[in-house]
Amino acid sequence: MESPADETPVRWKGLPSWLLTQTAHHAHRLVAEGFSSAGARGYHYRLLATLEESGPASQAALGRRSGIHVSDMVATVNELADRELVERAPDPSDRRRNVISLTGAGRRHLRRLEKQLAAAQDELLAPLSPEERQQLTGLLSRLLHHHEGGAAGTPEEPAR
């Protein structure tokens, strides 16, 4: 039986869009497997990291900051709250909404997820030298910045 790579037309294999898509599939799989081994999903990491970076916030604000859609935010907060990784408290300025905050257990879990994420990055980028990894990250950041409507020039150095 032939592998999918054997069936790929040669003219596609040199297209940057095809290469990016195929690499993104591998990246997603590696990250998902790493998070799964720590009992988490990507949304868990995004929410915990957003809380650590930005502090307590309403679910709506967290959704905007993390890029998690409101329909997924409720489930994500519920899952993390059930595990006591985040806590909900009524907003003192508006009792109709809750403020979500990171717990100590949530910080520790975030550290575990960051280790899994670093291992996934290392596996994904294994054939590249440190300099090539930095160059690739810079080029991808520039492409993304351009397509997200960024101003001309180079975006800030991405966090490592």
Q: What does this molecule look like?
A:
- This protein is mainly alpha-helical.
- 64% of the residues lie in helices and 11% in strands.
- The chain is built from eight helices and three strands, in the order H-H-H-H-E-H-H-E-E-H-H.
- The chain has helices spanning 4-7, 10-13, 16-37, 42-54, 59-66, 70-82, 104-124, 130-147, and strands at 57-58, 86-91, 94-102.
- A three-stranded antiparallel sheet has the order 1-3-2.
- Helix 3 (16-37) packs across helix 7, helix 4 (42-54) crosses helix 5 and helix 5 (59-66) crosses helix 6 (70-82).
- It is elongated and about 60 Å long.
- It starts with a helix and ends in a 13-residue tail after the last helix.
- The model has no long low-confidence stretch (mean pLDDT 90).
Tally of DSSP helical segments: 8
Average pLDDT taken over every residue? 90
Strand order, largest beta sheet: 1-3-2
Oligomer: single chain
Rg to the nearest angstrom? 19 Å
> Could you tell me the number of beta strands?
3
Distance between the termini: 41 Å
Question: How would you characterize the largest beta sheet?
Answer: 3 strands, antiparallel
Strand composition percent: 5-15%
Shape: elongated
Parts with pLDDT < 50 across at least 5 consecutive residues: none
List the helices and strands in order. HHHHEHHEEHH
Helix content: 55-70%
